[in-house]
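Supplementary Methods S3. Input chains for the assembly prediction are listed below.
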Amino acid sequence: MRNLKIILSITRTHLLTRFKQTSVAALGVMFGISTFIIMMGFMTGLNGLLDGLVLNRTPHIHIFNEIEPSDTQPIDKSELFENNFNVIKSIKPKVSLEKIHDALPLIANLKKDKMVKGVTSQTSAMAFYVAGSIQFNGSIRGINPSEEAKLFNFGDYVVGSTTKELTKNKNGILLGAGVAKKMSLSIGDKVNIMASNGTSLPLKVVGLYQSGLSEVDNVQSYVNLSTAQKLLGKGRNYITDINVKLYDLNKSPTIAENIERNYNLSAVDIQTANAQFDTGSEIRNLITYAVSITLLIVAGFGIYNILNMLIYEKMNDIAILKAVGFTGADVKRIFISQALIIGLVGGIIGLLVGYLGSLAIDMTSFETEALPTIKTYPINYDPMFYIIAIVFAVISTFLAGYLPARKAENIDPVEIIRGQ
Amino acid sequence: MSVLKSNNINKYFHKPVEFHVLKDISLNIDFGEFVSIMGKSGCGKSTLLYILSTMDTDYTGDLYLSGEKVSGKKQRELAVLRSKHIGFVFQFHYLLPEFTVLDNVMLPARKLALKSDKEIKKDAYEKLDLLGIKDQALKKASMISGGQKQRVSIARALINDPDIIMGDEPTGNLDSKNSENVFNIFKDLSQEKNMSLLVVTHDKDFADKTDRIIEMEDGVIIS
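Predicted structure tokens for the full assembly:
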């Protein structure tokens, strides 16, 4: 303990009398660490935003009734043709309803499952937006606004209003931003929607829906579930899509498979649907780490150089210390502790500067059509980055200090003293 | 009783060519003896001193310090023995330039850690007083004169109350007045504190005043 105190007092004197060199070394670490923090925060923030763009509003499992030709044709069931090679040409899908059969019990069942975070039901309908004598093709989707907002961040894409407005107003519509522009409609105006069966409903525009993808915004609008069912002239069990959000995204393929098998429905899981997004963000993360770690390694070389020079300057001191009773290990500790102090001080200042830099970026205005609710650049303040940064700063400076320190440990004092 | 004893010490230099520097050196120094080693440059006297000081361990033969055999011990143990029993004074004062005079003097004792820092400080002031440089205690080592530096390094050599002080040309870098001073300090230490001294020197006048002169030539003791 006392030994350590002496070593640290020598370290302190060395560092303070060479304040300039020490500061330069610490600055090197500081730059490395702060850049790491800023880059990681910024890049992963952006990644999160981009992933969120797709993943947040994509259900983990999307259940629907796909219209497709049956796998087993009647001829396959007949014993008469069992051993024959049957060829059927021009198979067509069987006439069936678009709605999910027994949707309400299925939803109730799903909600009971412990792995399911929430379930929303939707009714989609092809429709026309009627503006005077012109009709636009469009797609209307009936939703439960508050649940959609809670589970799939639906609120992020509503402009000039909130999802609550739609809940309050049964005859309201969140009009696609592109549609609104084409028809020069704004919030508060009335719009006529006509279903393919001829039913027409006058609805009040309570807000705009802007996804950022213009081909969606030009056709897609949202109404209450009951309004959509009314438009189609169907009852409240007419549900075409069920979206499921799970607690654990990774379980989605197995659960989707179970639903397909048990209910004879199509269920698409998020991982199958959006595999490329995962890959994209993984590669972006990899690049960020690679660049940041390179920066830290460069800072490490700076420390290595400065300590190496310091040791050459301090040859005499090392010889004296050894002559008056310090062991090689003591001398090594002196130089390693110098490296560690440079690393820690530079690292902690680097964390602070990195944090301030992130705050500055966080306040920089960033407005884009694609993301109506985002006003500034996204930053990820994950404490993990700060931990990684400081640990890396300490480890790299330790390594950078270790090699010169070991050299100092092995210096033969006799050679130095006699060499003069 | 002997403070330092060596039996048949042999040493070779391997670079640049194989060279037999010290040949069967046996010597004995008693407590309170003031001994000087003389000889021409290259006769091996400094080499011998560093072997006797335990800093150089690359030799064959036996070395005893205050009756304890030290040859074959590990570096770590030698470092402790060295700071306990031996004080050093070099030709170039070899102080840590960025530390104060007081810190320089205290350092070996703080490392040995047999006493509290407070006691060590008191001791250090005592030693500095003994050498007449107490008033310089809080100055940086790089800020005092050459003669003062040498006295500081003697004070440092004394801080752990060693059995023997070894000097490698301790007056080699000093003018005659300062040399005289250093000699008188050494003489006092040997007579009043019964301390042994072993000094390598070129200075004939200096050596003549010591109790015994060991003369070396080509790696052997000739008288």
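The interface with chain A takes residues 46, 50, 55-56, 75-76, 79-80, 82-84, 88, 90-92, 94-96, 98-99, 107-108, 110-113, 156, 168 of chain B (CB under 8 Å). DSSP finds seven helices and ten strands in chain B.
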